[in-house]
């Protein structure tokens, strides 16, 4: 990820007064080898309603794409322009790297990043342009566009010449296939 993200986290002091707990560069940054996709994890909750009494940095952990079953994930992802049709990752490698199950013998998806999560996802395109691929269609998105993703199979394909940054909030949900 080429852009750093300033993360400001608020909380309460012992008297209950609102204070800044953290103000600085978000530290949990991961770049996927091969694809160059960079993700900055900003916060994770394990349940809803969230337990705000725990303290500590809720982004100081390793987690796959999906949120905890009853929790949430907040991250910013930077998609570099793809090299060729779908980058240099194989379907199986990309899915493993994303922490998604690889179904033995399944037909290869239309894009290595094709996946679905048991979540409701709110996505805000912050900069650049990208194509959201669905099973049989696609939608071109640009800065300022928003997506509400309801546990559907999808992938992100940056076919342009500049990186695309998207802010994602994923909230655990009961998926239609469960």
Using the CA coordinates, give the radius of gyration.
17 Å
Largest sheet: 6 strands, antiparallel
Number of helices: 1
Q: Give the averaged pLDDT, no decimals.
A: 87
Total domain units: 1
**Poorly predicted ranges:** 85-89
Count of DSSP strands: 11
Order of helices and strands: EEEEEHEEEEEE
Fold-level CATH name? Jelly Rolls
Description of the structure:
The chain has 178 residues and is mainly β. The protein has a single domain, classed as Jelly Rolls (Sandwich). It is 4% helix and 39% strand. The protein is built from one helix and eleven strands; from the N terminus they run E-E-E-E-E-H-E-E-E-E-E-E. The protein has one helix at 91-97, and strands at 6-12, 18-25, 29-31, 38-45, 72-79, 119-127, 129-133, 138-142, 146-150, 155-157, 164-172. The strands form three sheets. The chain has a six-stranded antiparallel sheet with strand order 3-4-5-11-6-9, with no helix packed on it. Strands 8-7-10 form a three-stranded antiparallel sheet, with no helix packed on it. The chain has a two-stranded antiparallel ribbon with strand order 1-2. Strand 1 and strand 2 form a beta hairpin. The longest helix has 7 residues, at 91-97. It is globular and about 55 Å long. Mean pLDDT is 87; it is low at 85-89.
Q: Which descriptors apply to this entry?
A:
about 180 residues; mainly beta; globular; three-stranded antiparallel sheet
Helices and strands in order, then pairings?
Blueprint lengths: L5 E7 L5 E8 L3 E3 L6 E8 L26 E8 L11 H7 L21 E9 L1 E5 L4 E5 L3 E5 L4 E3 L6 E9 L6
Antiparallel strand pairs: 1-2, 3-4, 4-5, 5-11, 6-9, 6-11, 7-8, 7-10
């Amino acid at each position: 990820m080429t852009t750093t993200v300033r993360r400001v986290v608020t909380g309460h002091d012992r008297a209950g007064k609102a204070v800044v707990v953290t103000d600085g560069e978000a530290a949990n940054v991961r770049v996927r080898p091969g694809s160059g996709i960079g993700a900055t994890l900003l916060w994770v909750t394990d349940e809803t309603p969230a337990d705000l009494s725990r303290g500590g940095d809720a982004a100081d952990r390793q987690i796959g794409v999906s949120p905890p079953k009853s929790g949430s994930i907040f991250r910013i992802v930077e998609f570099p322009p793809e090299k060729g049709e779908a980058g240099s990752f194989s379907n199986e490698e990309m899915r493993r790297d994303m922490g998604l199950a690889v179904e033995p013998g399944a037909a290869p998806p239309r894009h290595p990043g094709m996946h679905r999560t048991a979540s409701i996802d709110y996505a805000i395109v912050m900069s650049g342009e990208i194509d959201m691929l669905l099973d049989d269609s696609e939608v071109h998105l640009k800065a300022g566009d928003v997506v509400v993703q309801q546990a559907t199979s999808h992938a992100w394909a940056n076919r342009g010449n500049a990186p695309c940054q998207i802010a994602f909030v994923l909230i655990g949900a009961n998926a239609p296939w469960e």
